[in-house]
User: Fold this.
Amino acid sequence: MSLCRSRLLLLAGLLVGAAAWWSHARFQAAPDFSAWLAQGNHAGDSACYHRHLGTQGVAGVLPLPQLLSVQRDWRRCRSDPWLLPPPSHWPQMVPTLRLLRELQARGLVTAQDVVTSAYRDAALNACAGGSVHSRHLDNSALDLRLADADPAPRLAALCRFWQREGKKFAFGLGFYAGGQIHIDSRGHRSWGPDYTARSSPCRHDTAAQ
Assistant:
């Protein structure tokens, strides 16, 4: 991978952002993002990815440790806690981050929510039980754990946004156990715990339609 100009300035910003994010991270025995950056080409490659997102106006939507996170599966699957997508997959995250920025602006996703899975390569996706058609494979999906003790009100609000404005964002919205959700920007659809539309809360929340 070619090196990006001004990578040192970007790397300094990444390290500062990483320290701030880990100050309130909720993972027990959490690994050190700064130490991971220092391994191999992680620092330079991460800076290049961050710079690409900056050219698209979305570099500040998520701290980089969350954008690269595979925290839900890394221990069980013997993976690194963070995973960089290949450069060919970088553009796919841009519309998803624009969608996420809109959800943040509406209060539908908050700074207390945690990304549990972003890009996954084929090996990690198989270990995690992901579909062979998973949008995590092309770097257009994010899974988040909502911070609410009772996530039901926010899930209902997400459904209403999906119903009213989801088509505009090609909003894919999935619901999993324990207040976890999936978002992507690869098609207007919704599903629930059995991975079908039948179990989606949005199928039954029709008050806004």
About this structure: The chain has nine helices and five strands. The radius of gyration is 17 Å.
